[in-house]
Amino acid sequence: MSMLLRSFNLFTTYFPRVFLTILLLWSYWALIFKVILILPIFFGIKGIILILILTYLFLISIISYFKVILIGPGSPIDFPILIVNNYNEDENGNLIINEDLRLNIKPPERFILNSIMIKRDGRFRFCSKCKCWKPDRSHHCSTCGTCILKMDHHCPWFSKCIGFKNHRYFIQFLINIEIYLIFITILSGWVLNQFFIKNRYPLKKFSFHILFIFCLGIVFTICVTIFSSFTIYQLLKNKTTIENYEFQRYRRRHTNNNIGNVFDLGIRYNWKMVMGDRWWHQLVGFGVVEVVDDADDVVDRCTGHI
């Protein structure tokens, strides 16, 4: 049974990644070798310009996609200062929690000063599975099997959580793939118009790849537009997907009139918190990957201190 489960986990992890990569490669290949290099209208400078644009959009889409996967969301267990090693396990691998010991264990000082969220019993948030303190907005992902910093959601298309470290690249991917989808949909639609409305080319030059790209392009463009709009709206409000659907508990009592979103710093700073200061890094995604290896910095930025 464990072998079957491992096989299933491997399939669900790698199938979406392989499928999406093949889909992008196929669309790129089909438009170049079944359209641009076949139809006379694209011979010469027009074709070169189209190939350059298509190649650029394809590359930034695929690069931002794999950045989300390779960089990962980040986890509290990456920071030794947040890990508590005073727990033992029984013979079945279950945690033995000494309640008196737990009451005496305190998180790091910066964690205490800046943490806003608490558990139902009023204590600081702690994960007994990962044996670590959970900074604000961190959650344990049952699919990944670990706690995720500033967890937004677990995305099946990446087989990876979207969180503190890779949120920027996730937004970049959505923007890049949206532009790529619009471009290939318009291009394939224009080619279909030349074949079937204006009858400009003989059908022997037509490839069904063009029709498939156009149909899939429309469907994916609509879906990605809706999802991207919702995701960017959340970013501008400094709100995660989990926070949209879960009740949050805070250390200080608030009334319904003044609680609002305690992490909202305004549109400009909400955007900068995730995307950074430089606009070319924000939208394009090239450049040096930001490395955050200080636990205090993570705690500050998860709670909205910039």
UniProtKB/TrEMBL annotation:
It is found in: Membrane. One of its GO terms (molecular function) is protein-cysteine S-palmitoyltransferase activity. It comes from the Eukaryota. PROSITE patterns: DHHC. It is an enzyme of class 2 (transferase). Keywords: Acyltransferase, Lipoprotein, Membrane, Palmitate, Transferase, Transmembrane, Transmembrane helix. InterPro entries: Palmitoyltrfase_DHHC (IPR001594), PFA4/ZDH16/20/ERF2-like (IPR039859). Residues 124-246 form the Palmitoyltransferase DHHC domain. It is a multi-pass membrane protein. One of its GO terms (cellular component) is membrane. It catalyses: L-cysteinyl-[protein] + hexadecanoyl-CoA = S-hexadecanoyl-L-cysteinyl-[protein] + CoA. It holds the Pfam family DHHC. The chain crosses the membrane at residues 20-42, 48-66, 169-190, 210-233. Its EC number is 2.3.1.225. The DHHC domain is required for palmitoyltransferase activity. Belongs to the DHHC palmitoyltransferase family. PANTHER family: PALMITOYLTRANSFERASE ZDHHC16. This is Palmitoyltransferase.
